[in-house]
Amino acid sequence: MSSPQEVFEAIRAEAGTVLIGNEDIIEGLTISMLTGGHTLLEGVPGVAKTTIATLFARSTGLQYQRIQMTPDVLPADITGTHIYRENLGEFELQRGPVFANLVLADEINRATPKTQSALLEAMQEGNVTIEGDTLELPKPFMVVATQNPIEQEGTFELPEAQRDRFQLKYVVDLPQRAEEKEMLKRFDSSPALGPNSIERVVTAGDLLAAREVVNEIYVDEKVHEYILDLVAATRESEAVEHGASPRASLAFLNAGKARAAIRGRDFVTPDDVKALAPNVLIHRLILGTEAELSGRSRKEIVNEILGSVSIPQQDLDADEATVG
User: Which is a Pfam family this sequence falls into (predicted)?
Assistant: First the structure.
């Protein structure tokens, strides 16, 4: 199974046996997995942030590790360390939970900045350094982090450099009444339903093969220009003190390729870029003092930026191009 579209549909269908709604987040996780990116999930307690990540991991069959972030978690608790084995008379490397295909950093903002930074090298380079030794992480590798926006006591806000390493951010909202009613019915009839009910529907080989397809997706120069215009607009906005970095431009490029491939196209459209803009930009913008004091949200400002940038005309025919 090398088709990104087939990979996503298989994951979506299997996760959907437990998950109600939030298909856009499953798509976002798939996009990040197919492009070597990482995803940040934000939401109040009880909206299934951790469950979503677990369902995704189980449906892919990837090696999965969950790290419950707390202030007393140390960098070595994540990356690992050398432990002296008295019976052997030598030090032995004890690998940490970061050595997995999918790492869930649960409530990442409860860890100290020093511990948060232990993930930086892993997220950017795909390897970690332990006491001078640089070790490669498994492939594919992906970090999914969760955070709670309403409990600030005992938390440490993610620094800009850390936020910038997340390709996409999704806000997990409270369900609509109809969705919550369906949840009650489903769990009333199957009380044991949960992540353990999920079966693997794709393999690591499938994901790596789908990545190769995504790499070949065509991006027209007009789409390049649209990406650059959007990123430039964040830097020029009066409401924004610090706009998006070049890493945001690459996030648009790579995520746009994966979104197109998931939809069965072999080229990216400006609409792919526009649809991804809130998820690519919302966690990267640092608002100016005036915007902060007036209570303006990042989502509102991103929408203003989208409205201020002209969408280029697409010359390609979306109905004629498909991904095999």
Answer: AAA_lid_2
